[in-house]
Each structure stands twice: as structure tokens, then as C-alpha cells.
Design brief:
This protein has 382 residues and is of the alpha/beta class. It is 38% helix and 23% strand.
Length: 382
């Protein structure tokens, strides 16, 4: 799989930009703030229907414009598809597939990407929501049908949360809460089953990747902490939605009183966490800055290798990360990138990019993207 052409209009800082791409390495070089990341963000948005930098679509639209457009031509097993998204703040996005109207979710799976960026440090140091999003984004990338599961769960969660908030103020009829419990348990069990399967699949890749990029550190481990288990309980959850649904219903009954008192949903996948351990303790708060970077890198390398197992190699996007890595981690990432079908790299200066990843160069600046001359062939230890 590779992206043959990327075009944007009124996306972020770009009034208009077009890039013709080929398999192999493409490097976008330019000073900070000139729009390099905006371009690879657009590619990631085509793949995931979301940004790795912001939670809402409004910041993606150029100031003064009504909407933004992102278009890509994707080649997959010799077949070319054109996908297009029109992004409008506060309204549903519009999508086209080969020129015909489509639902945005119908585009999922046409382009797959794995994006590693400085923001990924939040996977280790951030709150559980960052890690839940990581799992769900990867789950949808691997199995696009989970986009519907995720959306249905979020919709039910909002409705049930609204009911609990009004109940807290004594203005709600709780007779409908049982109905919402059933919906939450049904969709939540499906999402939870997918996450548990994913953690089991990605963990060996992540452990191996961390041993490769941080051989002198204690090993890492991945686990899943579920709100289904009461405080102090331990044990392995079943992997099937059919078994998880009654467990989720039971847990909702257990916390019903506390939920009504507090006006919030206390049980469900939205309260869970991907546990990252370093040696005998949690990675968050104990991993050094370098170890935190290594864990984040390992999660992205594991994502890439897992998706490759599905016989659909994703486009690897490396957004201004080589400057943040030490020699060993640069080498590990470069080794993967050198073998990838297509890699998009952003960098402030040529020296940030390892020698084996020179590839096709574009200079970004002054609102333009133009082909750049090959950098001087100086020796590079990587």
C-alpha cells in the first residue's frame, strides 16, 4: 500500500498544496512552523478520520475558510482508489470514493498509516484517555468495523451520562436507566473484547521492540486494567463479547448507587487503561525521559509490525522524531523505515534524517512545497 498523491485545500495553514509521491522514502524539510506536520497530519486524517494533534476538527480548517478538503490517491495491490474528505466544523464531514458520495466510515481501511510524533510521549506520561485512544485507533485501523462499535458506545455513554446528571439533581425518571444499562453493556462488551484481543496481539511486538531500542533497561510489559473488576480484584477477563456483556451488566448494578450520587458513569471501557510496566513498577512516573521515549517508540513499532502481519503494510509517518532520539533508537527506527514500502518523514534540517533515509526530498516554506536538491553526501553514522 502506498499514497500516490496527496492534495489539501484550506487545511491548517495551507490554502492549497499538492504532493506527488512514490513508494520508498519521502522527506519534507523546512523550518518549524512552515506546515510540514500539517501535510502528514492530512495523510493521517485520511486514514483515521482524526488528527493526532487535536480532538476536534475546527482547528484543521484554515482561518477564514468554511471548510477544508483532503484528497488522496491510494495504490493497494495494484488498484488505485481516490478518497476525499470535506471537513466542516460543527457538521458531519462529507466523503467521496472515486468521485462518488460515500460515508466517511466507508473510507476506513483504504489507507492505513502508523504515525510516530513528539505527541506520542503522552502515551506513557499522559492520562488513560491517551492510551485508550491509542488502542481504539489501532483497533479501527486493523478492523474498520470497530469504528461503528466505538461510535455506538460513545453515543450510549453520552445519553446515559446525561440521564445520571439529571438524576443527581432529582429531575430524572430512573426507570429508563435499566434500558441504557443494557445498551451500554452490549456495545461496551464488543469494544472491550476488541481491546483485549488487541492488547494480547500487540504485547509481544512491543516487548521485543523495547528490548531492541533499550537493551540496558528493565523489560516492559503491557496489561489491561478494566473497571469491570472491583477495587482489589484481579484476574483475567474472558475475551468474548458474549461473556463480557453479563459481567458489565453486573458491574453496573454494583455501582448504581454511587453513579446516581455522583452523576457519572463509573463502569465501562471509558474508565479502563492500558497498563505499561517497566520492570516491577508502572512506567508512568518511574520511566526516565529516554525510557519514556523508548516505550512510545516501541508501541508505534509494534503497531506497524502488527498491521504488517495482516498482509497490508501501512504507510509509516515519522513526524519530526529523529531529532528527539538517541543513536540506538534512531538506528532501530531507521532499520524499520528502510524496509517499509512507503515512509513520509518531516525534519527541520537534513542532518536530522539518517543517511539511509535520504529518499525524495521536498523543501517546505513560504507557503509552497517544491522538489529539493539532494543533500550533500556527508558521512552519517546511521
Amino acid at each position: 500500500m502506498h499514497l500516490r498523491r496527496l492534495a489539501v485545500a484550506d487545511f491548517r495553514s495551507w490554502e492549497k498544496a499538492e504532493l506527488d509521491l512514490e513508494p520508498g522514502v519521502t522527506v519534507l524539510v523546512g523550518s518549524n512552523g512552515v506546515g510540514k506536520t500539517n501535510l502528514v497530519e492530512a495523510a493521517g486524517y485520511l486514514a483515521t478520520l482524526g488528527s493526532h494533534r487535536v480532538a476536534t476538527d475546527a482547528p484543521l480548517i484554515r482561518r477564514g475558510a468554511e471548510h477544508a478538503v483532503v484528497r488522496g490517491q491510494v495504490v493497494h495491490h495494484g488498484r488505485e482508489l481516490t478518497v476525499e474528505l470535506e471537513i466542516t466544523a460543527g457538521r458531519a464531514n462529507r466523503a467521496r470514493r472515486n468521485g462518488a458520495p460515500a460515508k466517511p466510515r466507508d473510507l476506513l481501511g483504504i489507507l492505513r498509516t502508523v504515525l510516530f510524533a513528539p505527541e506520542d510521549l503522552a502515551l506513557v506520561r499522559g492520562d488513560p484517555g491517551e492510551r485508550r485512544r491509542f488502542l481504539d485507533d489501532l483497533l479501527v485501523s486493523r478492523y474498520p468495523r470497530y469504528a461503528t462499535v466505538r461510535s455506538d458506545y460513545d453515543r450510549v455513554l453520552r445519553q446515559r451520562s446525561a440521564l445520571l446528571k439529571t438524576a443527581r439533581n432529582g429531575r430524572a425518571d430512573l426507570s429508563t436507566l435499566d434500558v441504557w444499562d443494557g445498551h451500554l453493556a452490549h456495545h461496551g462488551a464488543a469494544l472491550l473484547a476488541g481491546r483485549l484481543d488487541l492488547v494480547g496481539a500487540i504485547a509481544p511486538f512491543a516487548v521485543a521492540a523495547f528490548a531492541e531500542v533499550a537493551p540496558s533497561s528493565d523489560p516492559i510489559a503491557l496489561g489491561y486494567r478494566s473497571s469491570l473488576l472491583a477495587d482489589g480484584q484481579s484476574g483475567e477477563l474472558p475475551r468474548s463479547a458474549a461473556e463480557l456483556e453479563p459481567m458489565l451488566l453486573e458491574a453496573l448494578v454494583r455501582v448504581r448507587r454511587q453513579e446516581v450520587e455522583r452523576g457519572v458513569c463509573l463502569v465501562g471501557p471509558h474508565r479502563d487503561d492500558l497498563e505499561l510496566s517497566l520492570g516491577a513498577g508502572p512506567a508512568k512516573g518511574y520511566a526516565s525521559h529516554g525510557e519514556s521515549w523508548a516505550i512510545a517508540l516501541s508501541l508505534r513499532l509494534a503497531s506497524y509490525r502488527l498491521l504488517c502481519e495482516d498482509d497490508v503494510e501501512p504507510v509509516l509517518i515519522l513526524d519530526d522524531v529523529f531529532a528527539e532520539l538517541d543513536t540506538r533508537r534512531r538506528r532501530a527506527l531507521a532499520d524499520v523505515a528502510e524496509r517499509a514500502e512507503q515512509v513520509l518523514i518531516t525534519a527541520a534540517v537534513d542532518a536530522d534524517v539518517p543517511g539511509g533515509l535520504r529518499g525524495v526530498r521536498f523543501a517546505v516554506g513560504d507557503g509552497t512545497v517544491r522538489a529539493a536538491a539532494d543533500p550533500s553526501t556527508s558521512e552519517d553514522p546511521l
